Amino acid sequence: MGKEGLRDELLKALSDAVVDMDEDKTGELAQKVLDEGLNAYDAVMNGLAAGMEIVGDLYDKHEYFVPELLLCADALYAGLDILKPHIKPEDLGESAKGQVVIGTVQGDVHDIGKNIIKMMFEVGGFTVHDLGRDVPLEKFVEEQMRTDSEIVALSAMMTTTMMGMKKVVEMIKEKNPNVAIMLGGAPMTKDVSELFGADGYADSAGNAVQEAIKMISRLREMQK
Fold it and tell me: What pTM did the predictor assign?
């Protein structure tokens, strides 16, 4: 089997191991990726993270619940621990380095999605300031100013708490118009994010990082 075929097979197996909550298997497969000389970043994004996105879908469909999600996350971390030290800076692209403040907005205690996205940012080479869940709106503003982060990522899983995001966007933009604000979570759509005045949105963890990298590139262009 050629390298391409081997890559496809291993990435699919990594994704399946995360979905199957199989921590040992994920670790073994991650090691195999390294032994075969395959790209560690590719394996994280298109193997582990791809599996976690399937898990997110299963959760949305009420086929998986919080206990399953946590076990899937454990499996994902088992693979990540092995692969992360082998990720090459050039795979991330120079544009990826930046700081991000992340949290789930006040009134919302869902943090699985936020934690997955946080992990993706870390893998992508970002410095992450995680405020946790049920975060008071002012705290996002304070933390952005304290850290001078280029990106603030807000997460909400409920339509009711989503409304708080609009306020945070206004508060941050008032103090610092150059900050890129990204909204994420199940109820988010492009229209809502534009209506709230945000710079980007993500309905899944994989998209979040790509979107963040694009936003930082845009910010850098603006500052030239």
Answer: 0.67
- pLDDT, tens digit, 9 for 90 and up, residues 160-219: 777 888 888 999 999 988 898 988 876 678 888 888 888 888 766 556 666 776 766 666
The closest alpha carbon to 93, from 217, 221, 224, belongs to 217
DSSP strands (E only) in the chain:
99-104, 127-130, 151-155, 180-184, 200-202
Name all domains of the chain by residue range, CATH numbers in brackets: 3-87 (1.10.1240.10), 94-223 (3.40.50.280)
Q: Give Cβ neighbours of residue 44 (< 8 Å, ≥ 6 apart).
A: 79, 80, 83, 84, 87, 123
Question: CA-CA distances (angstroms) from residue 71 to 2, 15, 16, 109, 178?
Answer: 33, 14, 13, 19, 38
Start-end of H helices in 66-158:
66-83, 89-92, 112-123, 137-147
Phi-psi category of residue 41: left, alpha or beta, with phi > 0 → left and psi -120 to 50 → alpha: alpha
Could you give the CA distance from residue 98 to residue 76 in angstroms, rounded to a whole number?
A: 24
